[in-house]
Design a protein that fits this description.
This protein is mainly alpha-helical. The chain has one domain (3-130). The chain has helices at 8-18, 20-33, 37-57, 65-87, 103-130, and strands spanning 3-5, 98-100.
């Protein structure tokens, strides 16, 4: 059976482009391909709240060196998770049936997740501004 996995570097680049949600997606999909259903669910159970927390922290790090290091650190962490919990741990990856997902697909998925995330943020800000929860023009 032909299985296509996201490599460590694909996960890093995809997470850098698409943000932490993209990283969760790549980690989740790899666990599913490896047949590790419990681990795939854990990646969502832990990843979504961590993502939410990261989004809450993002306004605090919009200037300076932290703004550069923040996405790089998240990308490195996602790649580390793939390397330590998926690539190095399972023999299935070292068989002849193993292939990586094409790079163009990684880039398109990452851009799609980035655009979707930005649209959701814009809608939330628009609704919050219209309802008076925040004053966007102050």
């Amino acid at each position: 059976m032909d299985k296509r996995y996201y490599s460590t570097n694909q996960t890093r680049v995809g997470t850098f482009i698409g943000g932490p949600i993209a990283g969760i997606f790549f980690i989740y999909k790899n666990f599913l391909k490896l047949g590790k259903i419990t681990e795939s669910k854990y990646s969502l159970y832990y990843g979504i709240p961590i993502c939410f927390g990261l989004f809450l922290l993002s306004p605090l790090i919009t200037n300076g060196l932290l703004a550069i290091l923040y996405p790089i650190a998240i990308a490195i962490l996602a790649g580390y998770i793939v390397q330590e919990t998926q690539i190095s741990s399972y023999d299935d990856i070292h068989t002849d049936n193993f292939k990586y997902v094409p790079w163009w697909q990684v880039i398109l998925i990452s851009i799609g997740i980035l655009v979707t995330t930005l649209l959701i943020i814009v809608v939330i800000l628009f609704v919050a501004g219209k309802t008076g929860l925040i004053n966007m023009f102050a």
